[in-house]
Write a structure and sequence with these properties.
By secondary structure, the protein is an alpha/beta fold. 39% of the residues lie in helices and 25% in strands. The termini are far apart. Bound molecules: adenosine-5'-diphosphate (ADP) and magnesium ion.
Length: 252
Amino acid sequence: MNEKLEVKNLVHVFNKLEVLRNLDFTVQDGEFLSILGPSGCGKTTILRILIGLLRPTSGVILKNGVDITNRPPASRSMGIVFQNYALFQNMTVLKNVEYALKFNKELKSRSREIALGIIEQVDLTEHLYKRPAKLSGGQQQRVAIARTLALNPEIILFDEPMSALDAATRLALRDEIKRIQEKFKTTIVYITHDQEEAFSMSDRIMVMHSGMIEQLDTPENIIRRPATAFVKEFVLDKLQKKIDSLVKYVNI
Ligand SMILES: Nc1ncnc2c1ncn2[C@@H]1O[C@H](COP(=O)(O)OP(=O)(O)O)[C@@H](O)[C@H]1O
Ligand SMILES: [Mg+2]
């Protein structure tokens, strides 16, 4: 079976406001799925439900065919990387990555060795003993990714991880995330409101608007056949504008 995650009839209501309206979607094993939509459309709420930080109002989540809707976060084999890194500022890079492993019964005894290996994979070995404040935004985000990878999750969820970074760092980190996915064969659910990011990184894109799925398809199919006016305007027209301004910039 190739379905890593199946989400069925997912509904979430906050204070009578229906934030997620009957979502149905799947994420394939090893897939890079982006969730693309404007601020407030419900993206973070989906991630919080997937990882188990929020109990949905109704609906079911299956992982590898097993219902995990009511399982605690620690038993889901999912990791999350946030926009603001959420690193421990008083700890070195090494300690930040080791920290998560200390609470894992199986990995605890090898925490130093695993942390060193992962830090090397994300190219941060020369910064082992630095604290986060001494690193650039992109490096801090790589520490956050290393910390998540150290626990060897089946699925990594990213919540707008590039929002705080400048354009050049974003490009570099895009490549880094793709490289990591290929190396570790992790399934990725990646939230963004940036059309370019979604189109350059994803196997499929789930376009959302007001708690509903407008279209879920490959980048190619979305470009060829936008399913709704929203997809055409919010996704394709904006993407075209970005490309036009890039072309103009390069011509100068
Ligand atoms: N804890 C909460 N309590 C009440 N409303 C919330 C809460 N979290 C999010 N919302 C509302 O749910 C909607 C979707 O929010 P969110 O999932 O954060 O959107 P996105 O990540 O796409 O910007 C918004 O209208 C937001 O105001
Ligand atoms: Mg959000």
